[in-house]
Specification:
By secondary structure, this protein is of the alpha+beta class. The chain has a single domain, classed as Jelly Rolls (Sandwich), CATH 2.60.120. It is built from one helix and ten strands. Strands 1, 3, 4, 6 and 8 form a five-stranded antiparallel beta sheet that branches. It is elongated. The N and C termini lie far apart (55 Å). About 9% of the residues have low confidence.
């Protein structure tokens, strides 16, 4: 049988562990955009561009371009592991014809803004959408 003193010890341990869990947890930020349709053969690139508005550094835990939820192979990635305040980066892939493309970035820290865009053969932007 537990005594009042034992109950207090158990309660103190529980509260301490709960506080430690709250302090050590890191909120993940998720920004995504699309879907954008890639029609005929005039599209040559899908690009996802993000900007870190701050107040702190963004550390990437995931970044991808997908078609129908399936990740595609990136042909370009300037993002690295982290993105400082006031910095921007781009990921890109070759579009798959006749499907929709989406972008997703998951970070800890930072405050990202972004755009997904489909580009043509002369590097002209054909379609774009804000990421949220």
């Amino acid at each position: 049988m537990l005594h009042e003193e034992d109950n207090m010890k158990i309660w103190s341990i529980f509260v301490g562990l709960l506080g430690l869990a709250v302090l050590s947890s890191v909120a993940l930020a998720d920004i995504s955009g699309g879907p954008l349709f890639s029609g005929g053969g005039t599209q040559v690139a899908v690009r996802c561009m993000v900007f870190n508005a701050g107040p702190g550094r963004a550390t990437f835990t995931a970044r991808q371009i997908t078609t129908g939820g399936t990740p595609v192979i990136l042909t370009f990635d300037s993002c690295g592991a982290t993105l400082g305040v006031g910095r921007a980066c781009v990921i890109a892939a070759s579009p798959v014809a006749q499907v929709v493309h989406s972008c997703r970035f998951v970070t800890t820290g930072g405050n990202l803004r972004g755009t997904i865009a489909v580009y043509g053969a002369t590097d002209d932007m054909l379609h774009s959408s804000d990421m949220r």
